[in-house]
Write a structure and sequence with these properties.
Elements lengths: L11 H18 L8 E4 L4 E4 L2 H15 L12 E2 L1 H8 L3 H9 L6 E3 L2 E5 H28 L6
Antiparallel strand pairs: 1-2, 3-5, 4-5
Helix pairs in contact: 1-2, 3-4
């Protein structure tokens, strides 16, 4: 995985090329039915079969690049530091450490350092989102029963 400090914002030319490529790819993706479409590299005339979901990911990368945003790809099995996990979740590192120590998120220790699998961080976030949605639904039901929505 490329280090974050080596990432550079796309230049204006790269953004323009990415937008043109995104527009073309997004239009083509609408008509593709094959799970493994074949693309051709015009320069070499070489044809390559690429999984459709990878082409869709490429479209997302092109879109973000066209907007001047940095793009980084993290494999699911990647381990992250407590600081990186806290940034992903949107909380402080000390709060994340408390979540780890309470067993809310699985982790391993390498010496004194905690390492968390990226997939476990995302799993925790999804669980929290599901709980929030459930609580919001319950609140709405309670409000409806109490007549708050009656006019």
């Amino acid at each position: 995985m490329e280090a974050m400090e080596n990432l550079k914002r796309p230049t204006k030319d790269e953004q323009r090329a990415a937008m043109e490529s995104y527009d073309a790819l997004a239009a083509v993706l609408l008509g593709i039915k094959d799970k493994y479409p074949e693309i051709e590299i015009e320069e070499t005339k070489e044809k390559i079969r690429i999984p459709l979901n990878v082409l869709k990911l490429l479209a997302k990368i092109l879109k973000e690049t066209s907007l001047g945003r940095l793009v980084s790809i993290v494999t699911v099995a990647t381990e992250v530091t407590t600081q990186a996990a806290a940034e992903i979740i949107g909380c402080s590192r000390p709060h994340l450490v408390k979540l780890l120590e309470r067993g809310k998120i699985k982790f391993t220790k390498v010496g004194k350092h905690r390492r968390i699998k990226y997939e476990h961080v995302i799993s925790y976030m999804n669980e929290m989102k599901d709980k929030q949605e459930l609580l919001i639904s319950k609140m709405m039901e309670a409000d409806e029963k109490s007549g708050l929505y009656d006019s």
